[in-house]
Amino acid sequence: MKSILFKYMSKFTSLTEEQQQTIANEIKIDELKKGTILFRQGDVPTKCYFVLSGCIRQYSVDENGKEVTSNFYTEEQAIAVFNNHKLDKSSDYTFLCLEDSILVVGDLAIEQNMYTKYTQLEVMTRKMIEENFANVQDEFATFIASTPEERFKKLLIKRPQLIDRVPQHQLASYLGITPESLSRIKKRLEIDSK
User: For this UniProt entry, which segments traverse the membrane (predicted)?
Assistant: First the structure.
């Protein structure tokens, strides 16, 4: 599992293998069961995460009590809530393990100490955030300009593993459509591909 972490350290830093191993020995890796909540909407997050294996759902509950899925995090993705702009620092989202998951767990209280001790970790974190932000910008622009069917086709290309890993009603919410619409799109695409 740590090979995924080493891959990221190598991609974003010039740390030696020995330095990478030292860092890997200091970080916490947790195995979490399906159904585990990392933190809830309204909580003030104290941790950040990096997915080594598993699938994490990000969602919020609107004023009518409806759950709205806004993202899924899978292997090699970081989970962090940027909420320092808010007075109460609370999360607008709940993060839930949809599968048994193995996560690197970062403690935000000691984050600066780790950056001071290993300066390239801060560089790595910044580069990961920049890459993630660019992806989010592209996905949002595409989402706004796309029809539901185009969104689903894009998902099939960019994240096909979600189709079998995520319940259909959550996938539909993520695509901004009803489960019935998603079923119709799937059937239409099956017909088109024959």
Answer: none
CA nearest to 139, candidates 127, 151, 122: 151
Measured CA to CA, the distance from residue 20 to residue 10 in angstroms comes to 8
At how many degrees (to 10) do helices 148-158 and 119-145 cross? 150
Segments forming the whole domain that contains residue 13: 2-118
What total number of domains does the chain contain? Answer: 1
Say how far apart CA 20 and CA 9 lie, in whole Å: 7
- Whether 23 maps to a domain, the answer reads yes
Q: Is the pTM of this model over 0.90?
A: no
Nearest to 144 by CA among 107, 116, 175, 122: 175
- Cα distance between residue 35 and residue 97, in whole Å: 5
Cα 103 to Cα 29: distance, rounded to the nearest angstrom:
6
pLDDT value at 85 more than 80: no
